[in-house]
Write a structure and sequence with these properties.
By secondary structure, the protein is of the alpha/beta class. The protein is built from 25 helices and 16 strands. The strands form three sheets. The protein has a seven-stranded mixed sheet, sandwiched between helices. Strands 3-2-1-4-5-6 form a six-stranded parallel sheet, sandwiched between helices. Strands 14-16-15 form a three-stranded mixed sheet, with no helix packed on it. Helix 4 packs parallel to helix 5, helix 9 packs parallel to helix 10 and helix 17 packs across helix 19. The longest helix is centred in the first third of the chain and has 38 residues. It is globular and about 115 Å long. The protein starts with a helix and ends in a 5-residue tail after the last helix.
């Protein structure tokens, strides 16, 4: 250190006109040669430590006036003792860390394997949850892990692989983590920021797993990508090799659905004895990015009750600038429901004016600005306002990390993180959706999971939407889950009518949110003609007059009171006996079986 300081102090530049001179001094070295590497390492470490214990030629400075003081001699030896301790600590940590890394690499070859592609604070949360639940071992793959994240991965007890073999997911990597072991469960999470990276890695790994003869039943994939992405090439279907299960995760949609499943709007509504809402449902959504738009869609789908009018106000400074995708992909939502868009911040005077005017009507406030710190600031401002005014409105913070009930009662659940195994894989949230899909497939030869694997995107979304609404049906009916399961599910005509209307309104809202519109008279007449032609050519044809999924049109997207006329019109063409009102009632009546 002294030599370096001197060099910095006295080394001159060319511009000074003085030629730089070399430093002169003595250098001490020590070498050990051994045939055995381990013995050589230990001897080398001890030899270097020895330099701090006396091999530093103290006699050469012992006669210096400064060193005649006992205090200075003590300071000299303390400095060397600290240096020895620092060196020893670094050496032990380095050697120990490498040994620990190798031990972890050996351990990941056993038990259930969780392979996470992409390091972030979120995926670290996922790893901690997996290990807390004792679900097996975790291997991270990433080249962009920061030193802090790398240290956190080691501290959690996971392994980080950033070598080319791991990044290419080649056979050497698969063998090194023990993925080829027979009957071993392998859960893959590709959770990088870019969906294209996740798709590439998922395909690379799948190819290698196939070459290694890993059975599809051993594997599962959770991939961060848009929910409507065609992932059929990754799913094991029939003779096609693929992952045993594939779950597409889009954080915005997942956050919105987590909000609805854990804090259903129906919980903040009151119903009379006939299943009719006693007031309107009104919400405020703050922020209109991906999360905000998804939250609005899910509120529309789950805020429909007979006797109630749905209203929502959206506040975001750039509301008009970012609504293009929403208004094009779900054009009927803004037309059919009382939704107002306000280009104001939730800290503005305009926001609080709206809140003051609608305070007695608002039942639900969701903050999804895209910034967790901003969500928290607005929530704290609202809490102070509520304390001063005596208002009691639930406030939810919703982001790509999860959902938090900010002003929840003490005995209520307050938060749900998205990066948990059961949330990401949708094991819990999709359980009822799988049963619903299997119920309507009516094929006892297949399990609900097998039906689900063959389910198209739209059918999955439809089943999920119906499953998410069941809590509202129970609440409106004034029944508990136990009563439904025990067959206590009979209703008066008034109750049945109101529950049927509620289901029809929910069904309409789902289709509007999925981009559907009502079929025009001309389109209906044209499809009636095509139906007759199809039946003439093939009597077993399953052509549907009133439904065209590719064009996103449906004849049933009409008020409840118009359904009887539609049923009669269709029966006149088909000779059938369809009853669209009864189909909605049957959806309610089938709940005990589900």
């Amino acid at each position: 250190p002294f030599a370096v300081a001197a060099a910095k102090k006295y080394r001159l530049t060319k511009n000074s006109g003085v030629k730089a001179f070399p430093l002169r001094g003595r250098c001490h070295g020590f070498a050990v040669t051994e045939d055995h590497f381990g013995l050589a390492t230990v001897r080398a470490l001890l030899a270097v430590l020895g330099t701090y214990l006396g091999r530093m030629d103290f006699s050469s400075i012992s006669n210096a006036p400064l060193m005649q003081s006992s205090l200075m001699q003590m300071l000299f030896w303390i400095v060397h003792l600290v240096a020895m301790y620092a060196f020893a600590s670094a050496a032990i940590i380095t050697v120990g860390a490498e040994a620990l890394r190798k031990l972890r690499l050996w351990l990941v070859r056993r038990g259930t394997l969780h392979l996470i592609y992409g390091v972030s604070s979120d995926t670290l949360d996922l790893a901690r949850e997996l290990l807390t639940q004792k679900r097996g071992t975790v291997v991270f793959v990433d080249t962009k892990a920061t030193p802090g994240n790398a240290a956190a991965i080691a501290k959690v007890g996971c392994v980080l692989r950033s070598d080319s073999s791991a990044l290419q997911a080649d056979s050497a990597f698969v063998r090194s983590i023990g993925a080829c072991r027979k009957n071993r469960s392998i859960h893959v999470y590709t959770l990088e920021t870019l969906a294209s990276d996740n798709l590439y890695y998922s395909r690379r790994l799948l190819k290698t797993l196939q070459e290694a003869n890993v059975e599809p039943a051993q594997t599962s994939l959770v991939i961060r990508i848009r929910e409507n992405t065609d992932l059929s090439g990754l799913q094991a279907l029939g003779d096609q090799y693929g992952y045993g299960t594939v779950t597409a995760v889009q954080e915005a949609a997942l956050a919105a659905r987590t909000l609805i499943c854990n804090f259903p709007p129906s919980s903040y509504m009151e119903f009379d004895k006939d299943g009719k809402a006693t007031g309107d449902f009104e919400a405020i959504v703050v922020g209109f990015g991906q999360v905000g738009q998804s939250v609005l869609r899910h509120l529309v789908m789950n805020g429909q009750f007979e006797g109630s009018c749905f209203r929502a106000a959206v506040f975001a400074p750039n509301c008009s600038a970012v609504k293009g995708s929403f208004s094009r992909n779900s054009p009927q939502v803004l037309k059919k429901y009382q939704i107002s868009l306000h280009n104001f911040d939730a800290r503005s005077e305009e926001f609080y004016d709206h809140l003051a005017n609608r305070a007695k009507k608002v039942k639900y406030i969701v903050l999804c600005t895209g910034s967790e710190s901003m969500n928290l600031e607005i929530a704290e401002n609202l809490l102070e306002y509520f304390q001063n005014t005596g208002l009691k409105i639930p406030v939810f913070l919703c982001s790509h990390r999860g959902v938090q009930y900010f002003n929840a009662p003490e005995d209520s659940d307050k938060s749900v993180r998205l990066y948990r195994p059961e949330i990401l894989s949708m094991e819990e949230m999709d359980e009822m959706a799988m049963l619903i899909n299997a119920h309507y497939q009516a094929d006892p030869e297949k399990t609900p999971k097998e039906h689900w694997l063959h389910c198209d995107y739209f059918s999955r979304m439809s089943s999920r939407a119906f499953a998410d609404s069941l809590e509202a049906v129970l609440r409106a009916a004034g029944k508990t889950r136990e009563q439904a399961k025990n067959g206590q599910w009979s209703f008066t005509p008034e109750q049945m009518e109101n529950l049927g209307i509620m289901e029809h309104c929910r069904w309409n809202a789902f289709h509007f949110c999925m981009g559907f519109r009502n079929m025009t008279e001309e389109e209906y007449a044209d499809r009636c003609r095509i139906y007759k032609e199809e039946k003439a050519k093939n009597p077993s044809s399953r052509y549907r007059i009133g439904k065209d999924v590719p064009k996103r049109i449906h004849s049933c997207l009409i008020p409840w009171e118009d359904l009887d006329a539609l049923s009669a019109r269709e029966n006149a063409v088909t000779g059938g006996n369809v009853n669209y009102k009864q189909m909605d009632r049957n959806n309610v009546l089938t709940l005990p079986a589900l």
